[in-house]
């Protein structure tokens, strides 16, 4: 027989005692052996461990929630900030002074919102990566494939790249068709959203990296996930670069121009 007791000492302190007892019959004699051990320290250590595990679990859940929130907020802000900037800079339909002022308000509010989002969590501050030295090819167009399931984000990329007449853009809206398009005609640059409806962007990158026909293709993650850990993991997994949403126009176009220059386009 075994039992665990919680006992109260005279000084009010709680102690735990574990007891074992055994009955022994020897001829006429009936005996009972018992042993009692103070296991308070062990109980305390167990309680501490459990508490630490609960805290760690809560902290993990909080980080995941924040990452999700950040992603959810950055995605629509990509459209708000991106299209406000495109409207302000539209050479075909330049906005009036009054419209320009209104667009400034939208952009200012959008940036204030982004500062709030960024202040909530550790996000990566990415500097434009230096263009790697690549074999110059025949002069011509820069061939870009963008894999993105969000139609508004895709439209923004399309309009941004339209500012560079020598870019030829193809698009795909999920991982499977993106892989098929990349293999059918390897692009110079693959802009890859990480959250795709069918295959995770990281997996898409891995599968394409495994194919020798894409050895010369630069693969850049384009994602609303700006958490430092996730960015570093993606770069370590094999992405050439990682551009966060909302898309920073200057950075985006500098990346395109840098690659075009490196390829001699
Ligand atoms: Mn997506």
Secondary structure layout plus pairing:
Elements lengths: L1 E7 L5 E13 L2 E10 L1 H49 L8 H24 L21 E6 L3 H11 L5 E6 L2 H10 L4 E4 L8 H9 L8 E6 L4 H10 L3 E4 L4 H14 L3
Parallel strand pairs: 4-5, 4-6, 6-7, 7-8
Antiparallel strand pairs: 1-2, 2-3
The site of manganese (II) ion has 5 residues, from loops.
Folded structure, characterized:
The chain is α/β, with parallel strands linked by helices and 265 residues long. It has 2 domains: 2-38; 62-265, Response regulator (Rossmann fold), CATH 3.40.50.2300. The chain has helices spanning 40-88, 97-120, 151-161, 175-184, 201-209, 228-237, 249-262, and strands at residues 2-8, 14-26, 29-38, 142-147, 167-172, 189-192, 218-223, 241-244. It has a 5-stranded parallel beta sheet, with helices on both faces. A 3-stranded antiparallel beta sheet has the order 1-2-3, with helices on one face. It is elongated, with a radius of gyration of 30 Å. The chain starts with a strand and ends with a helix. Residues 131-138 have low confidence and may be disordered. Manganese (II) ion (MN) binds at residues 149-150, 193, 195-196.
CATH topology of the largest domain: Rossmann fold
Strand arrangement across the biggest beta sheet: 5-4-6-7-8
- Output mean pLDDT: 89
Number of helices: 7
Percentage of residues in helical conformation: 40-55%
Query: Care to count the β-strands?
Result: 8
CATH homologous superfamily of the largest domain - what is it? Response regulator
Instruction: List the quaternary state of the chains.
Output: single chain
Radius of gyration, in angstroms, nearest whole number: 30 Å
Structural class: alpha/beta
Sheet-strand content, in percent, reads: 15-25%
Tell me which ligands are bound: manganese (II) ion
Total number of distinct structural domains:
2
Shape: elongated
Instruction: Tell me which CATH architecture of the largest domain applies here.
Output: 3-Layer(aba) Sandwich
Instruction: Kindly report how far apart the N and C termini lie.
Output: 84 Å
Task: Report the sheet with the most strands, covering strand number, pairing sense and barrel closure.
Answer: 5 strands, parallel
